[in-house]
Amino acid sequence: MSGFKKDFLWGGALAANQIEGAWNEGGKGLSVADVAMFKSNLDINDYAGHNLVTSKMIEDAVKTKDAKDYPKRRGIDFYHRYKEDIALFSEMGFKTLRLSIAWSRLFPTGKEEVPNQKGIDYYKKIFESLKEKNIVPIVTLSHYEMPLQLSIEYNGWVDRKLIDFFVKYSKVCFEEFGSYVKYWLTFNEIDSVSRHPFITAGIVEDQCEHYTLDEAIYQALHHQYVAAAKVTKMCHEMIPESKMGCMLTKLTTYPNTCHPEDVLLSLERNLDNYAHADIQIFGKYPDLYLRKLKNNNIQIKVAPEDDEILLQGRSDYLAFSYYMSRTESADPNKEKSAGNTIMSVKNPYLASTEWGWQIDPVGLRISLIELYDRYQIPLIIVENGLGAVDTLDKNNKIHDHYRINYLRAHIQEMKKAIDMGVDLFGYTSWAPIDSISVSTSQMSKRYGFVYVDQDDFGNGNQQRYKKDSFYWYKKVIETSGDDLA
Fold first, then answer.
1. What is the model's pTM?
2. What would the DSSP string read from start to end of 97-121?
3. Is residue 383 among the annotated active site residues?
């Protein structure tokens, strides 16, 4: 077996809105993440409840000047402790760190003509720290943290004006950070607009006065595709030898049974999932996607130049997140299972996490093979991990064998896919240090190799502790995936 290449990018992935905190420091403006509430009594299976955002909720959040009910405002204080945390990542041997730039640190409302210099200076310090540790950054331009004002004023990406705002912001990122960053990503999980419109695209349903929510979602998606293509072309022109990727939530779907209706449903779900990558990699809309919009009476506004823009700004590589697979059934009475902000039919052959996410390592190999066969461009897994309740013992140790078992099984399947011929150039687990959950705004749903002493209500001293998985992953990187024991 050939296994992983010597220059394989091992590392971890983070998002600014889940770790930085300092929501009102350094000239930062409010983002959509800063109004995400933690609802302690909400069922973990109720993703509709977690993602429900109204104009009234936003108005109340803007008036609130603390982080008590808004955990992403405090994060894990990475803003002040980034050197300490990067040193821990370096100790594990990270070759790369995927992170995002908070758009509202550079442009507090998104509309400013001149960027916030304090925000630029902050990220330069981060990139200098990574450079000192020989850690290659992979930077996401938009990771669920767009300026809140763009949602309030334009209902987010429904308005075409957002394209120009995003291009302006991206140009500043390329000018200021291009000497540090070779690998870029446009939008985190661009397909997620349909699952959580506000978090991904700033869409508030009660503001959809002259169009339906579905029309708002597909219009926002179109504007993000065009924006992604524009900044991809710009990145290539401004930063020699740069690589710009697109990112997909890989929601590999199986038929629950061999009943033809179940097979058909799973096929439709997979085609829906692929469409977002198709548009950014092939540079055009799939015919079946366009027909679906027509059949559902969904009309989107497309400018005459958009087809050419999409064609000229195609992605260099495909990044994707993979946590679980799902199944579909035509039988409405089948038992449901939660997972990755979506509900699906429970697979009886798979175990589940404490949050109901079904564990399917083989599904990762299937995903890698399907994606590489379809697109024939380099792939990178930029999110994969296990959310669990970790307990700090009296000796300040966390024995997270369950996380090691999860990651080991998935890395084994990655190796098998590579040996079949898949071009996989990196793996960044989610997340190398505990952070605020994107879906539930919990702290108790932990993914990290490093434990952060903070609970769901912000109690704790934020001290960092190495888990057993810290030492295990260090060994994995040292041996380039050969030693998974």
1. 0.95
2. EEEE--HHHHSSSS--SS--HHHHH
3. yes
